[in-house]
Amino acid sequence: MLNESKIQAAFHKYMRYAYPDVMAFSIPNGFFAGKNGVAHAVRMKAEGMMKGVPDYWIVAPSADGQYVGLVIEFKAGSNKPSKEQKHYLEYLNNNSFRAVVCYSTDEAIYEVERYMDDDSVEPMPEDEYDRFTNE
């Protein structure tokens, strides 16, 4: 089973391949949340780092014009979103974003294809995913 980091990295590789001109980026909150020392974490929080902000942001309108961006919180295994993450997901969903939780690269690819293609195209065939996952 892949961990959240590997799922997200494989998804980002897919995004660069499938949508090279779309602004898409990660928010590395976990990386900065104390793993580099307390002083660094305090500085990052002072600069605006917020606990619970979703992992991956795609800044592009949906094909149907309903949303301004797609935001993904990645989870692996039996991990569930935290209280703070649920708060952000709900807030974003109520404010012109589509915010989802994905447990695999395949699920994230499916979500972005639906978002970018207005549900009109079938998801990428499963045998194509091998290019992006490292399972």
Write structural notes for this entry:
There is one protein chain. With 135 residues, the chain is of the alpha+beta class. The chain has one domain (4-131): Trna Endonuclease, Chain: A, domain 1. Helices cover 39% and strands 15% of the residues. The chain has helices spanning 4-18, 29-32, 38-46, 83-93, 105-117; strands at residues 23-26, 56-59, 69-74, 97-102. The chain has a 4-stranded mixed β-sheet, with helices on both faces. The longest helix has 15 residues, at 4-18. The termini are close together. Mean pLDDT is 83; it is low at 120-124.
Task: Offer a quick outline of the entry.
The protein has 135 residues and is of the alpha+beta class.
Number of strands: 4
| Percentage of residues in strands | 5-15%
Stated plainly, the CATH topology is called Trna Endonuclease, Chain: A, domain 1
The total tally of domains equals 1
Number of helices: 5
Strand order of the largest sheet: 1-2-3-4
Q: How does CATH name the architecture? A: 3-Layer(aba) Sandwich
Q: Major beta sheet, specifics?
A: 4 strands, mixed
Order of helices and strands: HEHHEEHEH
Structural class, by secondary structure, is alpha+beta
CATH C-level name: Alpha Beta
Low-confidence stretches: 120-124
Mean of all residue-level pLDDT scores: 83
From the N-terminal CA to the C-terminal CA, the straight-line distance is 7 Å
Rg from alpha-carbon coordinates: 15 Å
Q: What gross morphology would you assign? A: globular
Work out the helicity level: 25-40%
